[in-house]
């Protein structure tokens, strides 16, 4: 029988309980306490802290505290990726943020989802869908990226946008829900 953590990582229905999930969440909470208390850290110190918990941290990747995540171990940051103050990444499954991507303050990247069936929700079931953000993407402050979304290289996500579906490479999307707009010079 598969553990709840194994089901979670596979994107299957799971209950967010059990010793493995609790231990990972506690580890992430302790890490966030240290990271978020280190506002004056050097770039090297920040990189070292990120490398303690993230699956991958490229050279020059940076996050400005405060930062919040579920586990951290499912996050991959490309070289030079940057997340500004107050970002939240719910990483029950993999979140990939490409090289050179810039993410504004208060952005939420969400992989956790819930069944549409109310009986399953009452049982505490949930599931995850990975989020993939390409290289050189710019995500404006306060944007929300929903579970299962892929954003192509060089895309722009407007401030406050709610991204409910995939975004093509080079596209600009704005609004709630986010819709493509014509490129502006």
UniProtKB/TrEMBL annotation:
CDD domains xref list: LbH_MAT_GAT (cd03357)
One matching Pfam family: Hexapep
Domain of life from the UniProt record: Bacteria
Statement: the UniProt record of this protein carries the keyword Repeat: yes
The name this protein goes by in its record: Maltose acetyltransferase
PANTHER family cross-referenced by the UniProt entry: ACETYLTRANSFERASE C18B11.09C-RELATED, SIALIC ACID SYNTHASE-RELATED
Domain Maltose/galactoside acetyltransferase: start-end pairs: 5-59
Organism for this UniProt entry: Thioclava marina
Keyword Repeat: yes
Keywords: Acyltransferase, Repeat, Transferase
Family: Belongs to the transferase hexapeptide repeat family.
């Amino acid at each position: 029988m598969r553990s709840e953590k194994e089901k979670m990582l596979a994107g299957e229905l799971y209950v967010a309980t059990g010793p493995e999930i609790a231990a990972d969440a506690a580890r992430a909470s302790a890490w966030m306490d240290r990271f978020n208390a280190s506002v004056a850290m050097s770039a090297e110190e920040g990189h070292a802290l990120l490398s303690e918990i993230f699956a991958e941290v490229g050279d020059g990747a940076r996050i400005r505290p405060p930062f919040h995540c579920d586990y951290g171990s499912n996050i991959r940051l490309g070289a030079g990726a940057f997340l500004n103050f107050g970002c939240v990444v719910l990483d029950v499954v993999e979140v990939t943020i490409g090289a050179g991507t810039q993410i504004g303050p208060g952005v939420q990247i969400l992989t956790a989802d819930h069944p549409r069936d109310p009986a399953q929700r009452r049982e505490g079931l949930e599931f995850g869908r990975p989020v993939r953000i390409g290289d050189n993407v710019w995500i404006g402050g306060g944007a929300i990226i929903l579970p299962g979304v892929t954003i192509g290289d060089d895309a722009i996500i407007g401030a406050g946008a709610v991204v409910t579906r995939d975004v093509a490479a080079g596209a600009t999307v704005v609004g709630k829900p986010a819709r493509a707009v014509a490129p502006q010079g």
